[in-house]
Design a protein that fits this description.
Helix content is 68%, strand content 5%. The protein contains 19 helices and five strands. The protein folds into two domains: 2-127, no CATH class; 145-442, Orthogonal Bundle (Neurolysin, domain 3), CATH 1.10.1370. The longest helix has 36 residues, at 90-125. By secondary structure, the chain is mainly alpha-helical. The relative contact order is 0.11. It is globular, with a radius of gyration of 23 Å. A three-stranded mixed beta sheet has the order 3-5-4, covered by helices on one side. The chain has a two-stranded antiparallel sheet with strand order 1-2. A hairpin with a 4-residue loop joins β4 and β5 (238-244).
């Protein structure tokens, strides 16, 4: 799979990956046959068939962007042809893009609804009342749905006001960060090492190992998976970072985020305490690097912009983590909806967070298709990461708390690990209030950002 992500022109890699999944399913079904248990064998066969159907639907989702066309002056145009056309004015491109997006939304929306039905079947087959309960166990979440719902309500009350207050500054920061560039990959990686990784011996050793054995690919290429991710290669017992962005500032900031994943894998040998902890490690790494962002980017002004951008991104992660959790819970509880009803539901829920959005935008989030209910971990872990950062402001314990958390996380789940290193429960309203106040003080936006009496 990683080979294909590094070179998407090599479709043979992808076919090998699909074949390995199918082969694994056949092996599992074969094991069931060995027990001569017809009911068990049938369940295994059904589970195998559902997993294959699911994989094919997710593949179809990723292919739709290339497959969907729109008629322009009597001719079919793919998206790339539409966006690069010299014969169309900007206004015409916007008009035809909207038509293309509507067709795309309908196509991938129908795929999504098929996935929901399959997922609900999988949950029943595994003995769960709902798919969300099944996924909470898959993600190793030790809190109940009622607790996550209470957290969602607290987020609605507390986070949108400061996020909206910061959003204009964040837009300017993102624009200004586009002026950043680096000479080559080596100069970027050297700068990160010199100004941040050398602050701690343990971080420095892990970083040196990554560089020495080139356990990364951060070059920008068309034939490479876009975005950023870190995978653990079980056969080699090594983590690997993959990043592909067109903007240098995105590469720099994402590398620090992904190094949080890399470092936790490096320290624990791939033994993680669940998804919530995993995302805490990456987001806390971003925050701990913030004081050094000016030196890394070669400009204190850009460093200040990066801090605003990172803070805004984490607040958005909290909001979107809850937004998509709420959206998906309602969809999976009521799977017999139309795509238009999904769009209306997304618009309604977004409005409750103070967000004005295009109701079709939910379909652009691959997690909703590939790993439903994942996004909540971005939200809950951002609160925990912010408390790690808060400690680093008041005393020189931020990095040590971070290191302790990774070690404790080898054998404990999210809430247990946080408690053992002296961090608060991020599900509690008081924790959320405190980190928001800390952000407001740090960025000097101390106007009333929420109703303190609430």
């Amino acid at each position: 799979q990683l080979s294909y992500q590094l070179n998407t022109d090599r479709t043979d890699y992808f076919q090998e990956y699909i074949y390995s999944i199918e082969l694994l399913g056949k092996m599992q079904t074969g094991y069931a046959d060995l027990f001569n248990d017809d009911s068990f064998s049938k369940e295994m066969e059904l589970g195998y068939q559902l997993s294959i159907q699911r994989k094919k639907l997710v593949d179809a989702y990723y292919n739709q962007e290339d497959d969907i066309t729109v008629i322009v002056n009597g001719e079919e145009k793919h998206l790339i042809e539409l966006l690069t056309s010299n014969a169309l004015s900007t206004k015409e491109k916007i008009y035809y893009y909207d038509k293309w997006y509507t067709a795309y939304n309908q196509a991938v929306g129908e795929i999504f609804l098929e996935l929901v039905k399959i997922d609900n079947q999988i949950a029943m087959l595994e003995g769960y009342d709902s798919y969300v309960a099944y996924m909470y166990d898959i993600y190793e979440r030790e809190y109940a749905l009622e607790e996550s719902k209470a957290f969602i309500e607290n987020v609605k009350q507390l986070v949108p006001k400061i996020y909206m207050k910061l959003s204009k500054k964040a837009e300017r920061a993102q624009y200004n960060l586009q002026s950043y560039s680096y000479e080559d990959e080596e100069s970027l990686l050297d700068s990160i090492k010199e100004h941040f990784m050398n602050q701690d011996e343990t971080l420095g050793e892990a970083y040196d190992y990554l560089i020495r054995y080139k356990l990364y690919d951060i070059s920008t290429r068309d034939n490479k998976l876009s975005g950023g991710l870190t995978v653990y290669l079980d056969s080699y017992q090594e983590p690997f970072i993959l990043i592909n962005y067109s903007r240098p500032y995105q590469t720099a900031l994402t590398f620090i985020h992904e190094f949080g994943h890399y470092f936790s894998y490096f320290e624990t040998g791939g033994h993680q305490g669940g998804l919530d902890l995993d995302e805490t490690y990456s987001q806390a790494m971003e925050l701990l690097a913030m004081p050094y962002s000016g030196a890394i980017l070669g400009s204190e002004t850009l460093g200040d912009e990066a801090q605003v951008y990172i803070m805004s991104s984490l607040l958005r992660a909290i909001i979107e983590g809850c937004l998509y959790e709420e959206f998906l819970q309602q969809v999976y509880e009521n799977p017999n909806q139309t795509v238009q009803e999904l769009n209306a539901l997304y618009t309604k829920i977004s409005g409750e967070y103070g967000m004005s959005v295009d109701g079709r935008n939910w379909c652009q989030v691959p997690h909703n298709y590939e790993v439903p209910f994942y996004y909540f971990s971005y939200g809950i872990s951002a609160v925990a990461a912010l408390e790690v950062w808060e400690q680093s402001l008041n005393q020189e314990t931020g990095i040590q708390t971070y290191l302790n958390l990774i070690q404790v996380g080898r054998e404990n789940h999210f809430l247990e690990a946080l408690e053992k290193v002296g961090l608060s429960n991020p599900l509690e309203k008081e924790t959320l209030e405190r980190v928001i106040r800390c952000i407001a003080d740090y960025l000097d936006i101390n106007e009333i950002i929420y109703d303190k009496a609430a």
